[in-house]
Amino acid sequence: MARYKMRQSIKKNVDELIAHKGVYTTITEIMSQPYINPDRSLEWVPKNIKIADKGNVLYYVGCIPYFNYEFDKIDSIALSTLQILSKIEKEPIVVFKEEICCGHDVYWGQGKLEIFIELAKKNIKMFEKAGISTIVTACAECYRTFKVDYPKLFEDFNQKFEVKHIIEYIYDIWKEGKIEFVGKNESEEEISFTYHDPCRLSRFLSDDNAITDNTREIFKEFQKLGYKFTEMEHNKSNSLCCGVNSWMNCNEKSKALRYKRMLEAKSAGSILLTACPKCKIHLSCLQDDYKDISSIEISDFSEFLVNHIKVIDSNKISEVKK
Amino acid sequence: MTESKEKLNKNKDFEPELLVFCCNWCSYAGADLAGVSRFQYPPNIRVIRVMCSGRVDPSFVLKALKDGADGVLISGCHIGDCHYISGNEFAKKRFERMHKIIIKQLGINEKRVRLEWVSASEGKRFAEVITEFTNQIKELGPLEN
């Protein structure tokens, strides 16, 4: 927002500078209008998974269906997150067909507070109507918006709804002993992987938030399965940015920053994990331009974990306790 | 009942505001010809001239819808006649993607955004397309419904 104000003093029309010519932020602004009821495609939901309109646990997809317009293979984040959730939860997961944006991009990227508040009101109304108690999201930006920014406007938001990022969710369930990580790496060599901390999951959260440490704890467990976790040079709250948060703008400087990040990733491992769809989009976008970094496999946290989670039967747990 | 009646009456009096992107080489000349030949068409449209229909970015369409346009029409040369060889093919590809992924998922009626080919000699057709489009939007009513 500060950057936006700064730009405003230099150039008059700031909207020209937004990445992708402002397509995605305009979508957000349209969604804030009261007469718009999105009709999102649920084609990515596999047939064997049941979803519901009302229930306890909501999977908040975010803007992923709209990203399909320009980016490929983004659906797989939503798909794998839903697969994880439906594996763990017994009841069908709630996925809204008329879900709207959380408003992160207009709040951070453009400082349009009125639109942000409209979106927040619309969102809360929708959650209350469906009787949601837990919101799970795979998007770092949605998480931060629900966790930090909404309670600033609506004080009782955090009492009404429990907001969890998929990392936090898996960590909590794992600590309760309900799941275990399986799926040993079959090749003899260890596969080294590294993790790119999205800014919204590290330095943009309050200090008492333990997500960065929890993530590493999960990764330590993967050591047993033949995956070796290595840190990049800049990590946790000092991690480098992907360059284009909230569709600010994509120029040579942000590309240089991304390139630097990819070189760090290359020296750390062959798989790069991240937990934010936008980080994934932007980092993999650069791979088309530079051949030396195109060997790194970039995947989302949920995409990496989806085949490694096994639910422990509740009968077994009670036996162990006896 | 009264409400729906009121709505109907409202729709009858409703004059839509439509935005038309015309390419410089065919559709704009076609619109010009419609004017010169004195073909009648509703005065609800505002024409924006672009050099090619391929110039029309989805963000233009979205911004128009956001700022109160009730419908957007993109008009260019017939396939194969593009002044820039393949600009309209590009426009078509991009338009279909936008239609399916953005407009439909936003819950906006797909009829509100339309792609048409009008050549420089088709003044009559231009008038017909505009009349048909305006009537269609009149039936749908304002976007802010």
Give a verbal description of the structure.
The complex is a heterodimer of chains A (322) and B (145). With 322 residues, chain A is an alpha/beta fold. Helices cover 44% and strands 12% of the residues of chain A. Chain A folds into two domains: 2-176, no CATH class; 181-309, Glutathione S-transferase Yfyf (Class Pi), Chain A, domain 2, CATH 1.20.1050. In chain A, the strands form four sheets. A four-stranded parallel sheet of chain A has the order 8-7-9-10, with helices on both faces. The radius of gyration of chain A is 20 Å and the shape is globular. Chain A starts with a helix and ends with a helix. By secondary structure, chain B is α/β, with parallel strands linked by helices. Helices cover 46% and strands 16% of the residues of chain B. Chain B has five helices and four strands, in the order H-E-H-E-H-E-H-E-H. A four-stranded parallel sheet of chain B has the order 2-1-3-4, with helices on both faces. Chain B is globular. Classes of the chains: A alpha/beta (322), B alpha/beta (145). The interface between A and B is medium-sized, with 22 and 19 residues.
Kindly state the percentage of residues in helix of chain A: 40-55%
The interface involving the most residues is between: A-B, 22 and 19 residues
Q: What is the chains' assembly state? A: heterodimer
Helix count, DSSP H or I runs of 4 or more residues of chain A:
14
Q: What value does the average pLDDT of chain A take? A: 87
Please summarize the sheet with the most strands of chain A. 4 strands, parallel
Counting DSSP E segments of at least 2 residues, the number of strands of chain A comes to: 11
Structural class of chain A: alpha/beta
What is the beta-strand fraction of chain B? 15-25%
Please mark out the parts of chain A with pLDDT under 50 across 5 or more consecutive residues, or reply none. none
Count of domain modules of chain B: 1
- The total number of structural domains of chain A is 2
Strand element count of chain B: 4
Widest β-sheet, arrangement of strands of chain B: 2-1-3-4
